Amino acid sequence: MTDQAGRQTWRVDVEGYPLDLPIVPINPEFAISLMMVIDLGVTFGEHIGKELARKIAPLQPDIIVGPATLGIPVAIEVTRALGLDDYVVLQKSPKLHLGDALVQTLTSITSKGEQRILLDRAAIPLIEGKRVVVVDDVVASGSSLKGALDLVRQAGGNVVGAGVILTEAQDWRETLGADAETLVSLAHIPQFAPGADGVWQPIPGT
Ligand SMILES: O=P(O)(O)OC[C@H]1O[C@H](OP(=O)(O)OP(=O)(O)O)[C@H](O)[C@@H]1O
């Protein structure tokens, strides 16, 4: 199948909500399927919030933490579905008030180069000594989620789990180590290599 831009797509069933994700080349030999959660509307947001909340509720979190950018709508929807109010965003842009923020560095699969994630010191009381679940849209290499988990622990949070809409391939298992055991997700996507006919094919084992 192709989308309106003529890109080959990959169908994934997100707990009963089918999505056709465009396959986007990273280089001529390797491609990923891309889910832009901010382009999928409020019905999808409500759906993933409810479904992740159902899996996260038994962990009895006090607070949900989400890394910018695409982890923000996930954190908001999961917080709403759990009946909580506050949530914490880990920022990526170095805003003026974040001069003395807690910091971790990371490299994600989709964004080029090294990034920093920052926790505003004013948000530490929402995390310190609290049961924390970190959520994001996708985990692939696991670098972003690991950075977020490290930052929460640096702030004194008791990480009781993590949740993503999609797991992508398997690299995140090694990166996250023991935290991979407590990760909940709604669906899985493989990564892609070109077939003989030039059509992208899922890489076996991803
Ligand atoms: O497991 P990883 O290899 O780290 O990849 C997953 C991360 O990549 C994307 O974020 P990105 O860095 O593109 O930033 P964005 O959310 O600001 O788009 C996505 O939102 C995850 O946070």
From TrEMBL:
One of its GO terms (molecular function) is glycosyltransferase activity. It holds the Pfam family Pribosyltran. InterPro entries: PRTase-like, PRTase_dom. Residues 50-175 form the Phosphoribosyltransferase domain. Gene3D superfamilies: 3.40.50.2020. The lineage of its organism: Bacteria, Pseudomonadati, Pseudomonadota, Alphaproteobacteria, Rhodobacterales. The keyword Transferase applies. The keyword Thylakoid does not apply. Keywords: Glycosyltransferase, Transferase. This is Adenine phosphoribosyltransferase. It comes from the Bacteria. PANTHER family: PHOSPHORIBOSYLTRANSFERASE, PHOSPHORIBOSYLTRANSFERASE-RELATED. It comes from Salipiger thiooxidans. Signal peptide: none annotated.
